[in-house]
């Protein structure tokens, strides 16, 4: 806990170890803000909701979303909105507090399960937690952008003698050097985390992601809302994706532990399985398709028209290319949603198919239709 990457370093941004979509363009967060408003409207405009973000990084995404909420204040006027951030990194939570509240926060508020609270520059209450379980129950919109890829994975390899776990060992030949080894026999993890129908020979499993998705699905089933998960990942097809980044360059995962960002692609097929029964899922859909459906082209045109100088216009076009180009972030990043079952299928559809108006399509996964 004291020497981990996110507690010690957490180097996000241009001067750090990696860069994320919300840090590249404000449009990204704005379109996600529109997604929540669109779902809020489709679900009958409940009079209160919590926006819950897992791993908010520098707080940029929340900041962009809250700006959209402010711009659409007339739409949200009768709705009581609060923000709940789940963040383990003391350093990043400080950066988030400055970004979102100007630094005016109260640590360890006595009456709350949160470790910190404050008010956003736009007047919305914000709370910080270390665990999703500390977030109070209630109608919530969840967001996990580049969060699940940061959680630890188990690695497995199929051998002639059955599944073995890939473990980390100290190299007996070289001092201070770690190495990968295969477990000599089965381990509790090989017995518990590999799906019986698995066909790959090398598999990475993130049980912590599974547990969090189960919690999100239960919360959505019980209290309503929706979750949007965006990350680089695959649908149960990739094998060896575990890697490290330091100063924007690939970094050997076993060297200088705690100083590099360690990451593994998110297995969306696993997340879908973990949500099953409790919540419906949509996706994964490629980032460029999701953003296109959300109207990124129109938003870009408006920003280009409103920007006077060439440098800003070039920056807008460059960041659009980073987000949308299939060779850059457009194809490898995916969007995935958890929704209450009734959001996709009328509960009594089978009995009286004509009696209800059709359910509005879910934006992003279909074209955005805001009325
Ligand atoms: N969503 C942000 C940041 C992504 S980096 C963006 O896209 O820019 C991953 C974030 O998850 C960081 O804020 C990190 O501190 C946080 N994090 C990592 N492990 C966590 C855990 N177990 N619980 C809560 N937050 C965690």
From TrEMBL:
InterPro entries: NDUFAF7 (IPR003788), NDUFAF7_sf (IPR038375), SAM-dependent_MTases_sf (IPR029063)
Catalytic activity: L-arginyl-[protein] + 2 S-adenosyl-L-methionine = N(omega),N(omega)'-dimethyl-L-arginyl-[protein] + 2 S-adenosyl-L-homocysteine + 2 H(+)
Principal location: mitochondrion
A GO BP entry: methylation
GO cellular component, one term: mitochondrion
Subcellular location field: Mitochondrion
Gene3D superfamilies xref list: 3.40.50.12710
Keywords, sorted A to Z: Methyltransferase, Mitochondrion, Transferase, Transit peptide
EC number: 2.1.1.320
GO MF entries: protein-arginine omega-N symmetric methyltransferase activity
Any single Pfam family the record assigns to this protein: Methyltransf_28
Cited PANTHER family: PROTEIN ARGININE METHYLTRANSFERASE NDUFAF7, MITOCHONDRIAL (PTHR12049)
Role this protein plays: Arginine methyltransferase involved in the assembly or stability of mitochondrial NADH:ubiquinone oxidoreductase complex (complex I). Acts by mediating symmetric dimethylation of 'Arg-118' of NDUFS2 after it assembles into the complex I, stabilizing the early intermediate complex.
Protein family: Belongs to the NDUFAF7 family.
Descriptive protein name: Protein arginine methyltransferase NDUFAF7
Source organism of the structure: Donacobius atricapilla
């Amino acid at each position: 806990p004291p020497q981990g990457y996110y507690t010690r370093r957490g180097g996000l941004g241009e001067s750090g170890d990696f860069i994320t979509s919300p840090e590249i363009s404000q449009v990204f967060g704005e379109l996600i803000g529109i997604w929540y408003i669109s779902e809020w409207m489709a679900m009958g405009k409940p009079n209160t909701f919590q926006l819950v973000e897992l791993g908010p990084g520098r707080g940029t995404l929340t900041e962009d979303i809250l700006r959209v909420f402010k711009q659409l204040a007339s739409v949200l006027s009768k709705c009581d909105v609060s923000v709940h951030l789940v963040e383990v990194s003391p350093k990043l939570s400080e950066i988030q507090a400055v970004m979102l509240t100007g630094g005016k926060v109260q640590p360890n508020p006595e009456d709350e399960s949160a470790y910190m609270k404050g008010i956003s520059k736009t007047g919305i209450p914000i709370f910080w937690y270390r665990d999703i379980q500390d977030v109070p129950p209630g109608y919530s919109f969840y967001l996990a952008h580049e969060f699940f890829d940061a959680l630890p994975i188990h690695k497995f390899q199929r051998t002639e003698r059955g599944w073995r776990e890939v473990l980390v060992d100290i190299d007996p030949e070289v001092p201070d050097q770690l190495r990968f080894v295969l477990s000599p026999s089965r381990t509790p993890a090989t017995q518990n985390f590999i799906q019986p129908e698995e066909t790959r020979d090398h598999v990475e499993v993130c049980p912590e992601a599974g547990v969090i998705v189960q919690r999100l699905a239960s919360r959505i089933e019980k209290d309503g809302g929706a979750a949007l998960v965006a990350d680089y990942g695959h649908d149960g097809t990739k094998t060896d994706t575990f890697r490290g980044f330091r100063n924007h360059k690939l970094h050997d995962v076993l060297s200088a532990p705690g100083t590099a960002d360690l990451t593994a692609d998110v297995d969306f097929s696993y997340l879908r399985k973990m949500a099953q029964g409790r919540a419906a899922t949509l996706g994964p859909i490629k980032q460029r398709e999701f953003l296109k459906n959300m109207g990124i082209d129109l938003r870009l045109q408006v920003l280009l028209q409103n920007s006077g100088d060439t440098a800003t216009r070039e920056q807008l076009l460059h960041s659009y290319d980073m987000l949308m180009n299939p060779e850059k972030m457009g194809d490898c990043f995916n969007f995935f949603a958890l929704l209450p079952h009734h959001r996709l299928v009328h509960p009594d559809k089978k009995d009286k198919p004509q009696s209800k108006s059709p359910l509005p399509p879910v934006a992003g996964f279909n074209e955005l239709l805001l009325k």
